[in-house]
Amino acid sequence: MDISINGARVYFEIPVFGGIPVTATQVNSILVILLITSLCIWLTHDLKVRPTTKRQIVAEWLVEKVTGLVDSNMGVQFRSFVPLVAAILSLSACSSLLALLGMYAPTADLNTVLGWALLVFALITYYKIKTNGFGGYLKSFTTPIVVFTPFNILGEISTPVSMAFRHFGNVVSGSVISALVYAALAALSNLVFGWLPGLLGKIPFLQVGIPAVLSVYFDVFSSCIQAFIFAMLTMLYIASAATPEEE
Amino acid sequence: MENMGSLEMAKAIIMGGCAIGAGLALIAGIGPGIGEGYAVGKACEAIGRQPECKGSVTSTMILGCAISETTGIYGFVTGLLLIFLAPNIFLGKL
Hints:
The complex is a heterodimer of chains A (247) and B (94). Chain A is mainly alpha-helical and 247 residues long. Chain A is 67% helix and 4% strand. Chain A is built from six helices and two strands; from the N terminus they run ββαααααα. A two-stranded antiparallel ribbon of chain A has the order 1-2. The relative contact order of chain B is 0.18. Chain B has 94 residues and is mainly α. Chain B has a domain at 31-87: Up-down Bundle (F1FO ATP Synthase), CATH 1.20.20.10. In chain B, helix 1 (6-25) packs antiparallel against helix 4 (70-84), helix 1 (6-25) packs antiparallel against helix 5 (86-92) and helix 2 packs antiparallel against helix 3 (54-68). Chain B is rod-shaped and about 70 Å long. Chain A binds chain B through residues 5, 162, 165-166, 168-170, 172-173, 176, 225-226, 228-229, 232-233, and chain B through 62-63, 66-67, 69-70, 73-74, 76-77, 80, 84.
């Protein structure tokens, strides 16, 4: 029985700066970006004031849903974050759902989600400095007393780290458990049906159907939930950073 | 064991230590399990008391569960690092 759990495959290296590897993560991310972009272009071309096509109704429904989400979680004054939240939601969900097609999910690579988390962290810091001023931002580390400064710095760093590891861990744990169950089912069906004569005994009957049930949970449900949570945390962190502290 | 060189012994200890550590790291799964079970139980109570807010209770519960799952995920990531990364790093130093 051989189980192989690998990271992203390196396709080739760009020979500058000592070799930049081009991996399955990058290729699949570009695929997802192209997919979403073309979907957006297809959904929004020749819009009418009074919708006549189902396509436009779907587009309007999507925009209304995300706008409603941002309004209820951040407030109406943060309407400008609707594109960011929609981008995070669609990118994360589509990247994770790529695993359904048997392709390497870009979110199963820590680099992808860590990049998103660092982007969100930069936005949070920007809005903290913008609302409180640079002095106020530095001063917020010494609350409630000066002794708490190391803990406050740790807490600040742990925001992007926990966001990235949560998303990465959920996606990877799904694929690891799927691989283990798949291998275990092959061994089990070899044990149960191994007495059948000839080629019939070599077909792993138990692998039919059962992994699909796991896939529904780990790939479909978990992917959508993680995309939702990442977007939700982004909204909550940015909204709390952009709101001045009441003292 | 007698004919085993000290280098082989060191390798064996490293691999075994990493495997044991990975197993121990997954003890972190206990905490989120208890916490999420408690949260779901409370959500069931809330739905039983006020069935009309089933939707918002369920969505809040799923969000909270996924966030409290983080500590378990940390344990899992530590286990992954110990299995796939740590042996190579330590064996390289021999």
